[in-house]
Amino acid sequence: MPGREWFGESERQQVNEVLETGVLMRYNWDAERRGVWKARDLEAALKTRFGVAFAQLTSSGTAALLTALSALGVGAGDAVILPTFTFVASFEAVLALGAIPVLVDVDESLTLDPKAVARAIGPHTKLVMPVHMCGAMAELDALLAVAKAHRIEVLEDACQAIGGTYRGRALGTWGAMGCFSFDYVKTITCGEGGVVLTDREGLYTRSKGYSDHGHDHIGADRGAEGHPFLGLNFRISELQAAVGLAQLKKLDDILRVQRRHKAIVKSHLAEIGALSFRKIPDESGDNASFLSFFMPDARRARAVAKQLAARGITGIFYWYDNNWHYVRQWAHLKACQTLGALSREVRAGMPDYASQDFSQSDAIVGRCISTAISLNWTEAEAHARGKAMAAGVKRVLQQG
Ligand SMILES: *Cc1c(COP(=O)(O)O)cnc(C)c1O
User: From ligand 1's centre to the CA of 157, what distance in Å?
Assistant: First the structure.
């Protein structure tokens, strides 16, 4: 997840163009900005790069999710299906709209299990939200088929999978809508930022309005614009969009280097028969920001995480114990620890997470180890890392 590793001259130059005009806002101020429209340019570039008809930038990936959910009409009491392995933002956004996050098991793709999704669909289900975790895709064919059969929409949380594809088409452009995050640890970054992608003009118009207080953006006088519906302020600033323009130009190089380094690390681990790799429905579309593999059992996966840490290897993730990415540690969600009272609909509709059985997810995530893939390794360093990781894994396997 390394856009930040390649921050440099072109980002500074882009930001300076904004600083020279002093117009930090993305809308209006037409004369003062002297032709500099960074957010507008970034939206155009994103549409071209990802092959989608409409793009609406937002202030974060979380804001992009809220915007997309709102555009799709998600509100009080609606149920949204999402995986047990994601970032907390996925369910935070659902809850913020008064809707109910329905967590569903993942399979060895580390994303939504389509069979579990089919079982979880109920009368209140409005939406399925596959999350393309750690750079690679959910089983989109199967998930889209389940959604279609039940006439519900799909919103892809592609925040971690910028540049990934499935059957040659960009992740984030398969569902009715898709979201990217440009936060500081994502594949490309603006510091903070996000985008909503869609091919449907109506969903775009709603997204554009919702992320700017409901503004209809008609006419040249912002103060006189209409407000056909209520919104919020999720606007990106020109400074962030400027950084995004420089980063987007680097995306293809980022993907190429990431894939090369991942293949090198993987070649060393592939020699160990006792471990297996994450299932990736379309290997050629992996954005390669992470390499994920499974140990034979959870005890030895945890031991590997400890062993690699002891050997000074950083960037290793044992998600099962992670506070932010896996259901096991989401005590705040299970106990509904919000600052203010939850709506009646949410209180009545929340599944009983304290007692729900996620043993399928536990059996998969509990055995999983991921390593982040760095852009700044040399090839020799990537080999050294692969060797060091393989040595640590073998040590744990020898201990039995
Ligand atoms: C990063 C991330 C988000 C939220 O993005 P922010 O820009 O940090 O708000 C949402 N979902 C997933 C899966 C993410 O990794």
Answer: 8
